[in-house]
Amino acid sequence: MVDSKKQWKAWLYLAPAIVLLLVFTVWPIINTLRMAFLDNYNGMRAVAGEKFNIGIENFKKVVEFKDFFVCLKNTALLCVITVPVSTLLALLISSALNSIKFLQKFLQTIFFLPYVTNSIAIGMVFAAMFNMVRTVRIIQTAGIVNNVIMFFGGQPVNWINAGSTYWANMVVMIIYIVWNALPFKILILLGGMQSINKQYYDAAKVDGSSRSRILWKITVPLLSPMIAYVVITGFIGGFKEYTSIVGIFGENMGPASAAGRLNTMVGYIYDALPNNDYGRASAAALILFGIILIVTLINLQVSKKRVHY
Amino acid sequence: MAQKTMKEQKMQTVTARSRIGSTVVKAFTYLFLIVMAVIVLFPFYWMIISSLKTLAEYKWAKPSFWPQTVMWSNYAEAFTTANLGRLFTNTVIVGVISTLLSLVITVLTAFAFARLEFKGKNVLFAGLLATMMIPGELFTITNYATVNSFHWLNTYTVLIVPFLVSVFYIYLLRQNFLQIPNELYLAAKVDGTSDLKYLWTVMIPLSLPTLISITILKMMGAWNSYIWPRLVANDDAHRMITNGLRNAFKDTTGDVNFPVQMAAVALVSFPLFLVYIFLRKYIMKGVSRSGIKG
What we know:
The complex is a heterodimer of chains A (309) and B (294). Chain A has 309 residues and is mostly helical.
C-alpha cells in the first residue's frame, strides 16, 4: 500500500520531464526514422493525406545531390584540421600555464574568455578583421589582418570577399574555429595536469630529464584520458559546425561570389526544412548521426590502445 | 682537498647553468603565453576600438589603435538600427521564463532519480543518458513539424517549451543530490517532513552551486541560441538577440559601416563579459563537466 503510493509519487515528480521528453525527444527519434524511410516524404503533402512508400529513396537523393558532398567535404576538412591543431595548441598553452605561478590565474581567465562569447557576434568581428574592399587595383579599406600583412611588406589577400579562393575562406574559418575551440580544451587539459601527482615531476627532475621529454613522456601519457575526451568532443562538435560559418559569411554560407560553398552537414539539413523536405532532411540527419557515431567509435578504439588509465 | 673544491666548483657551474637555463625557459614560457593571450584578446580589443571610431577613421590605410574622436553615437545608432531594445526584451523574457521552469523540472526529476524508489528507475535513467548521444539536429526536424502543427510558430512558447528538459542538467544535479547523505532524508522522514519541504530546505541549499551553474549556462544558452529561434520565431515581435543581430547586419563583408556594426556586436557581447567577470567560477565548473556550449 505504502509502496505503491510512493511509486505513484515518484512518477508525479517525473511527469513534467517525461511528458516533454516524449513529445520533443522520443517522438522525434521515432519520427525521424519513419520519415527517412518513406520515399520523398514531404511535410505539406503528408498533411494533405498523401501516402508514401517505404524505401531508401531519401538516402539515395541525399547522396546523389552534389551539394551534399560539398557539405560533407567542408565539414570533414574543418574537423580533420581544427581538432588536431586546437588540441596541440591547447596542450602547449596549458602545460605552459601549469609551469608558472605568477599571473597563472589571470592568464587562465583570459584564455577562457572566448568560450563565453556569442559565436555569431564574434564571427562578425573576424569578418571585419579579414575584410577588404578594392576597386580594380586600389584598396579602399582593408581589415586589420591585411594591414598587418602589408606593414610587413606582403601582398594583401582577398580572404572572404567576392572572388576569394576556397582555401582563403578555409584559412579564416580554421583560425576562427581554433580560436573558439581553445578555451574548453585548455580548461579540461589544465584541470587534468593540475591533478597529476607532483612526485612524477620530482623524479624526472632528479633524473635530469629535459622539459620536452617530461611533456611527452609524463604529462601526455598521464593526461591521455583528458586528451581523448577533448578530441572526441572536438570531433562531435566539429561535425556539427554551422553557426561559426554563419557568423563570418552570413547565411550565404560563402563569399558573395560563391554562395553555399562553405555549407556544412548541419546547414544542409536546415536548408531542407523550409521546403518541407522532411524526408531528405531526416535521411541527412541520420547520415550525420552515423558519421558521428563511427568517428566516435574509432576515436574510442584508438584511445583504448593509447590511453593509460 | 683540491679535488673536492674542483668538484664543488663544477657543481656550482652546473647549478648556475641550469639556473640560467630555467630562467630562459621561464622567459620563453611567459613570452609564449603573453603572445597567445594577445591573440586571444585581440578580436575583443578590435571590436571595442572599431566601435568607437568614425567611419572615415576606420578606413584609414594605417589603422589607428586608439580612436581619435570617440564616437559614442555609434552605439546609439547601433541600438536603433538593430532594434536592440526589442531584441533584449525578447531574449530576457525567454531566458528568464525558460530558466525558471527548467530549474523546477530539473530539481523534481533529479530528486526522483536520486531519492525515490520506483520500478524501472535504472532503465529509465540509462535511457535518458542514451539520448544525450544523439545530435540535436535529428530532433530539430520533427520538432519543427510538431510546433508547426501546434500553431506555435512566432510565439514565445516555441522558444521556451521544447528545450525545458535537459538530460545533462538532470544528470549533473542527480550526482549532486546523491552526495547528500541518505541519513538526512531518513531522519527528515522520521520527523514527518514532507518530501517537498525536505527538498526545499535541505537539498536545494546544499546543491546551490550546481543550480547556479545551471542557471548561468541556461541564460547564456538563450542569449547565444541562433538556429532554433531563426527557424521558428523570425518575426519582429519575437526575434531573439543573436538572430536579430545577424538579421540587422546581413552583410559582413564589403563596404559596410563597420563601426556601427561593431558597436552592435559589442552591445551583444558586454552582458556576457559581465557575467563572466562576476560568475566565472560557476561557468568553469559547469562547463568542465559538460563540454556543451550553452
